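Submission checklist for the structure archive. All mandatory fields must be present; incomplete records are returned to the submitter.

[x] Identifier: Phosphoglycerate kinase
[x] Organism: Geodermatophilus amargosae
[x] Residue count: 397
[x] Sequence attached
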Amino acid sequence: MRSLDDLLAEGVSGRRVLLRADLNVPLDKQTRAITDDGRIRASLPTLQALGDAGARVVVAAHLGRPKGAPDPQYSLAPVAARLGELLGADVPLASDVAGDDARAQASSLADGGVLLLENVRFEAAETSKDDAERGELADRLAALADVYIDDAFGAVHRKHASVYDVAQRLPHVAGRLVATELDVLTRLTSDPERPYVVVLGGSKVSDKLAVIEALLPKVDRLLVGGGMCFTFLAAQGHGVGKSLLEADQVDTCRRLLADAGERIVLPLDVVCAPEFSADTETTVVPVEQIPDGQLGLDVGPRTVEAFGGELAGARTVFWNGPMGVFELAPFQAGTRGVAEAVAAVDGLSVVGGGDSAAAVRQLGLDEASYGHISTGGGASLEYLEGRELPGLAVLAD
């Protein structure tokens, strides 16, 4: 797989570069203000290197899940504004993806200039399962540039036009972010330094089942929190009240617990409440005593202490998924405590993107205290599952 450094060594001054970036940031629903610009900031090393080398950069990205047509609530306008602030230069936004305005603005770019295309998912062909439909959009995107760079690790598990098909039409390399993600994930999958501890949270066991199956033979401990822990607790025979439960996964969890023995570590206590609310009354109870009418919405202090003990001696840690509903103040302590324990690891600590990365920033924790904060989310999990990711496979071609 060729890298950005290979391309820079060849020289890019005056050349048009199509850069697929991951700028899928959360927006406030009312104001459309960006609430977490982490992914934009993660794109800067590649963008700045290209700008400094005099490339004319055309950036393709998506935001949210529009239904294959222009939708103002999913416009990349706020992203263009923030990207310009971070780069210290104007970043115009094309009014289309690969149409007349995109072509006109791309052709008039100056050396070192950056143009952001409108949300690629405004074109239904971007996510089409029909090769010809995707190919037609890829042809138009490829016509905007001389070379293609994929720096959107969070999208490499998608066989989309701007991720997969364009790379078949242009000389292509991996950007700095993709290269860094690959390096870190390879370290997690190829002879990680031990003890190797994985922390998984989030809402559903079914979302993480494949990665649990893939990682269990490789880890020394798998710590389970978040909403998914209640299906495991039910598999142990505990009542879970009104907590999130995937009844169809109880037998699977029971099998995993039997196969893994002491390698799977479950919560000892949970924070319960009668309702999902920021001002509700909470109680901390042992996992054996969750009241019938209560919801478990965070792991408790004994669990944080126990998980912290498992993490204290680890040399490699991968954390994906919050321990509770960290967006609400009464249910932040579990995620905060585990996040601080991960940050204190003397070795490689990897935050697996998505809600985990958002929690680090929302809780005001020092991002620099982690070895790597992934932008990958689902892509990271699929890589750890051992799946072939289309966006990486085509770069290696």
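[x] Structure attached
Curator remark: DSSP finds 16 helices and 14 strands in the chain. The longest strand covers residues 16-20.
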